[in-house]
Design a protein that fits this description.
2 copies of one chain form a homodimer.
Chain A (H helix, E strand, L loop, with lengths): L4 E3 L2 E3 L5 E2 L14 E2 L3 H19 L3 H17 L1 H12 L3 H24 L6 E6 L6 E10 L3 E4 L13 H8 L4 E4 L5 H17 L7 E4 L5 H8 L5 E5 L2 H12 L7 E4 L5 E4 L1 H6 L1 H13 L11 E5 L5 H12 L8 H18 L3 E3 L11 E6 H6 L11 E7 L2 H9 L4 E7 L5 H14 E6 L38 E7 L20 E3 L2 E3 L7
Parallel strand pairs in A: 5-20, 7-8, 7-10, 8-9, 10-11, 12-13, 12-17, 13-16, 15-16, 17-18
Antiparallel strand pairs in A: 1-2, 3-4, 5-6, 6-19, 14-15, 20-21
Helix pairs in contact in A: 2-4, 2-6, 3-4, 3-6, 4-5, 10-11, 14-15
Chain lengths: 525, 525
């Protein structure tokens, strides 16, 4: 590890400003001083990305898949060195580190498979009559990458949503060069993974510029990148304020560009009376774990729990005890912990005296907390719509299903909504689900929202303020759509078409010919 | 015709401000005074749209298709009354009126077919292992409408891109209620078509609020609609300044929403030396017609023609003569004609003396014009990137293929690029096509860009400033994607899932089950 940026294939550290990362467990600076990129280095990274774009976009599907697979191999071959640095920089445990590495390499290999399968190319070939000039014309469409993409490393997923995470994997799969803006709290993990990507790019003969990594401690580099005319899209996972700041900068450029920002969520959970009566033990187990796992630092942590129960408050008491009993964890960084304590204290000030909390012991440890209010209190204060990122949840007592519906009506857009119930009024179920559909990207039945499966049917997204664009998912193969645009070729000679559109289906991909899906060749009569 | 708005099912004219439309041929006001909507009427139209959204979104595919087909029927049954009003308000001829009506009803019926076919639902059903909570989970995704959509009527397509045009048809197909902001130059055509839509909605039992039509003469209503919190997306076809103003308003709302604005294009055409030598007659025929048809008032009109020819300038002279010889047409409105004359005069002032022009005869007639410059002149002035909407094109003489490439390098995003050539250097072809792909949504070989076929492989879109988002098309069945968002259901009881996601494939649609496309049922073991 050198602390340098990667500008294309080269390590580069021309600047004078440096920063170090911190072990949140000890509060000490970690080894290696990271050099922030200069404007010239940032410009060069974008120039390299732009100039290699058409070459990278026209690599064969097999070669591009090979690149992605090789990144996965190179990440694995970093071995314990990567895992150690990950744990030191994040305060997260060994088991989580290993699981997240697995998720990261699995994601890269899944995209490699998708790239070759070719469904994402969305090939459509029509031989049609046109009304305006009534003759038979030949129209063929495929998707291609949108251009250089800037990816912001996410604080809470140093591997799976950072340097070689979902945004990078989907952008590279789309044929878009990627420039990563490091998350300053895990610049070392970033450098190791960036090394793996650059090594893989060289080994598989990808053009220089396909990847760069920019060290940065503040906001300047990110703002500059998002406003650069040659950057064509942005992927971000993080805070609401950060995501919206980038979104607005991008919208106010001369050429506006899409910013997909995933900005977190309250992830409301509804627990209906039948569960409270018959299933409290199991559901409180699930929720206590989901609220506190890895110090609640997941965008899908359940931050809001509506419980329909009577005055005995059995569910509340049990959940409160279980949350308090979990070992309180070190948070990702001192800043994250300070922010958590501040938002948690605000919430407790609003909620009044009733709450359950573990005593925060040790440096940067976030106290596991369940605050308790009733539906009227919830409805009276719109500040309850603010996410408290960390091991905190708000339990809202509801006297009736009407209470629940009134609360749901004032909620904003969410990544997820969950319902715990097994034996209730079907009409009420349908009303709830209808509201969930309107409000969220994913709806979960008798389960917790944490644990986002990487699969084709996943939606990790949702209406504002969960994201800046509800039309896309940030997880799973469909996330590639964020970085693709269609191009249509009209009446082209076969030999000048891209391979995916030629008469002979040499790629063996599924194509729509005159509206019908087929892997056959186009027959030209 | 009454001049009223449609607020839901009801004609409503509570305001005092009125306007009339103008026959551009005579300059006279046409019959019927249109009453601008009041803020209360606009609010009510949005409230109705919002409150009917979940009902409309859950109509069956067959019922929704029936609604679209019935709109088409009702438009046809308006008969000559619609055609006459269209011609009077637009100055366009009978043949165009009939062709555009055909395009409009065909589009509606095509969407009806697509709705039932169900590919747009993008159903994906996965039974997967999740790494975080390692058990088999059942994850099912489908697309649903994004919410109420505002559609702006387009000046140059009073039928096909206005009240019941492509934007409205695709939004309704997606299950989104539509509020049309009338184009003030054809408010009568709008009212007739709005009547057809409302009649169809009543006949097919659609909920009130699924469609409203707002009369407006200025910018206020449009700005208000785009900023309203319950509006979730916008479709616009028109000027760059109009599109960008709406885009920025939408981006700066508290909840940003997608605006798909198609803002026109220069549609560069390259004519290589081999064509000039052997095919001048045919290509100049095609281009002269494409530049001047319907007074050049198409977003795909070729406004920029790069010709590689020698000093004899045979191609230029022949094209100039043919463009001049075409009958100059009345433009859509006095304002449109004034704007055309102003931009045309600016262009002629920049280009110098050499140009070909028909004398504009009669009121609101736009002079057919070909201005001529060389590559150096083109490169020297970025103002050549501005579209001159009307029967104008700029011919740029290029001495070499290098000249052409230098010119292409400075062009902005385009809807289309066209190449005329049959026998040239393959390497140069490939370089050109690579640049075209980067720059445009559609690339045409030996053909003109006008005449946008409505088919699955069409892309009517492209990089900025052609549109505000290159990831979508505004024409063809894929245009529905602008108004769809994914929703995922996790571990749901089968009977509570939407029909498209249930085990039994009662809709008979194509679904992806564990990554494989099939029309089979889901087998649950």
């Amino acid at each position: 590890m050198t602390g340098a940026n990667f500008i294309g294939y080269k390590r580069s550290a021309l600047g004078s400003a440096t920063f170090q990362t911190i072990d949140p467990v000890t509060g000490n600076n970690l080894e290696v001083s990271f050099t922030e990129a200069t404007i010239e280095e940032v410009d060069l990274s974008i120039a390299l990305a732009q100039s290699c774009f058409s070459v990278f976009a026209s690599t064969t599907l097999v070669d591009r898949a090979q690149f992605l697979n090789t990144i996965a191999d190179e990440i694995e071959s970093l071995g314990d060195f990567l895992i150690d640095r990950y744990c030191n920089e994040s305060g997260l445990g060994l088991q989580r580190a290993i699981a997240e590495r697995t998720r990261t390499v699995d994601q890269l290999r899944a995209f490699a498979k998708e790239v070759v399968k070719g469904d994402w190319l969305d090939v459509s070939i029509d031989l049609v009559e046109t009304g305006f000039s009534p003759k038979r014309i030949d129209i063929r469409r495929m998707m291609k990458g949108i251009g250089p993409v800037v990816v912001f490393g996410a604080g809470n997923f140093p591997l799976a949503y950072s340097t070689a995470g979902g945004d990078t994997a989907s952008a590279l799969a789309a044929g878009c060069p990627v420039i990563v803006k490091v998350h300053p709290s895990h610049a070392g993990t970033n450098e190791l993974v960036a090394t793996a990507i650059v090594t893989a790019a060289r080994k598989t003969g990808m053009p220089e510029g396909v990847f760069s990594s920019i060290n940065s401690h503040g906001f300047d580099h990110g703002q500059y990148l998002v406003q650069h005319p040659d950057v064509k899209a942005v992927g971000f996972t993080g805070s609401f304020s950060g995501g919206m700041a980038l979104y607005k900068l991008a919208a106010l450029r001369e050429e506006p560009i899409p910013v997909f920002a995933e900005m977190g969520s309250l992830n409301p959970v509804i627990v209906l009376r039948d569960v409270v009566e018959f299933n409290t033990e199991k559901v409180t187990d699930l929720l206590a774990e989901s609220v506190t796992a890895d110090a609640g630092q997941f965008c899908t942590k359940p931050g809001l729990i509506f419980v329909e129960e009577d005055r005995k408050r059995t569910f509340e008491k049990l959940l409160g005890q279980k949350i308090t009993a979990k070992v309180a964890k070190v948070m990702l960084s001192p800043q994250m912990c300070q922010r958590y304590e501040s938002l948690r204290n605000d919430a407790l000030a609003r909620s009044g005296e009733l709450h359950y909390a573990s005593e925060g012991k040790g440096l940067n440890v976030g106290s596991n907390t369940l605050a308790v209010i009733n539906a009227d209190q919830f409805l009276a204060n719109p500040e309850w719509n603010q996410e408290v990122f960390g091991p905190f949840s708000l339990l809202v007592h509801c006297n009736s299903s009407d209470d629940i519906q009134r609360c749901l009506d004032v909620l904003h857009g969410q990544l997820t909504c969950s319902l715990f119930s097994e034996d209730y009024d079907r009409a009420f179920y349908m009303r709830l689900v209808s509201r969930f559909e309107e409000m969220a990207g994913r709806i979960i039945w008798n389960g917790v929202p944490t644990g986002v499966a990487v699969c084709g049917a996943m939606t990790h997204g949702g209406p504002y303020p969960a994201t800046t664009d509800p039309r896309f998912t940030a997880v799973g193969p469909e996330s590639i759509r964020r970085f693709l645009r269609p191009v249509t070729f009209q009446n082209f000679p076969d030999e000048l078409l891209p391979p995916a559109l030629q008469n002979l289906n040499t790629l063996g991909i599924r194509r729509r010919i005159n509206g019908h899906f087929t892997v056959e060749n186009v027959s030209v009569c």
